[in-house]
Amino acid sequence: MRCVDPLNTPVTSSSASLPKIIGSARHILLDFDGSICSIFEGVTAQAVADQLRRRLEAAGIELPGDTFATSDPLEVLRDASTLGRHASDRAQSLLTDLEIEAVRTARPTPGAAGVITAADQTGRTVTIVSNNSPEAIVEYLVSHDIPAHIRTIYGRDDADPAHLKPHPYRMHKAIAGLGAFVSPGHCAMIGDSPSDVTAARQARVAVIGYASRPGKSELLADAGPDVIIADLAEITTALLSTPIAE
């Protein structure tokens, strides 16, 4: 396991790192895709990107040539945004529709429900901070009986790609939404991508990197999380066994 200190200096992690982070956290900030579910499990990201391109072309929007090389729907959204407000808004609307379709076959992330429930049981709030649309996130949460444990959602509610992680825009919004007396030090972010880690660190929030598949640890480590875990059950255990520091 690897972590970094507040000055971003790599240090060797110990089993004490995770409880220390959890003990300081009154508020859990949680990514959606990867940390709660695999949104493109039943419908692949490549298929969604292809459908988004086709629907934009059918709407008369001619995308840049290099857009066709990406398998990431968010990259298609970013490319559409370079064509003006109409194309950007249309891409946002179409991608939201495609994400809503995708979450119906999304695969729940093992251990995610346990983390959310344990946070709620121990008096911590859970806020989702995601590059996915709020509509798709709500669709998933409702179908899995999770909404009661979620404080609020900060998802892709506009077509501006500059607001997407790794930019900390929605991290800052989430912290501000928790109340006037909440500081970044009261929060911990759980995410499975380098963009999650970067956004959290820029917002000065402790970040737990979730290595959701083989090879992910190295990618996360390069971004500099405070600690990396390979099983969300580790976080559940820490939540249930670590009181919130006064």
User: What is the CA-CA span between the terminal residues?
Assistant: 27 Å
Structural class computed from helices and strand pairing: alpha/beta
If you compute it from the alpha carbons, what radius of gyration comes out, rounded to the nearest whole angstrom? 18 Å
CATH topological fold name of the largest domain: Rossmann fold
Beta-strand residue percentage: 5-15%
Strand order of the largest sheet: 7-6-3-8-9-10
So, CATH architecture of the largest domain? 3-Layer(aba) Sandwich
Q: Kindly state the mean pLDDT as a whole number?
A: 92
- Counting DSSP H or I runs of 4 or more residues, the number of helices is 10
CATH homologous superfamily identity of the largest domain: HAD superfamily/HAD-like
**Strand element count:** 10
